[in-house]
């Protein structure tokens, strides 16, 4: 409990100023970035900053009309940009569509410098399901990004072969929930209807959200082990910060008005600060392939850490990180 309180304080209050922002980010001409969920919230701000610095940015989102509106908005804000904005259909809640999305991207590009797995859902209505009938949070925050990333590993590897060491990256969205809401060892299992182990979704949607965020931390470490050094790609995860974003929309419905007001006043920050955290994870030259593989970034762009039990499960040979990766591999193989 003491560690949780320290983490809450150190990642929420008295935060140092961001070191990488739109004011000092170098020119990004020739770079290709894919930001999931970038039609709104933090992802939108990330896409806007990158485009303003002349990058080619893929706005990956489920709803085309919302993505195109976001693209138009970003272009209006940065009329002098020499970059490009492209829409990529991506529905992380439907595993049967993800391969087509990856193939669409691969048909349009021969390089990818940063995949930012920013998209996710936070505490949707209890009992919400994805297209394959599994818990919506697990499908959208765990299985969807896992499959999408695996399908893009070849282009990431090819890009890394021609770029400075450690500059091609994959980032995974965690949050304070990694520390505060995930169970001991990060995930919890149960027997499914077929008798095989599956992720436990019998608790509250707050619980499943915490599991999904711990899973993203595990993905940063496990993808890093399996593909990071070998492929020359830096995998890490991040807590973008406590933000007043659209991600809060379902959670806000569950709190009384006074609690929402208190949350806004004391804990939540402008969305742009979350973008600074993510851009640090994706572009900061401070991070290196040798020192930061599987690392965890905290607000507003600095190295951080997670609970000791999660670190143990990520580092041991047959820990929960490996078990989760192998489970995701099994569940998604028919869609790959």
From TrEMBL:
Pfam families with a match to the protein in the record: adh_short
Any one GO MF annotation of this record: oxidoreductase activity
Entry keyword set: NADP, Oxidoreductase
Origin: domain of life: Eukaryota
Stated family: Belongs to the short-chain dehydrogenases/reductases (SDR) family.
Protein name: NAD(P)-binding protein
Organism of provenance: Cladophialophora immunda
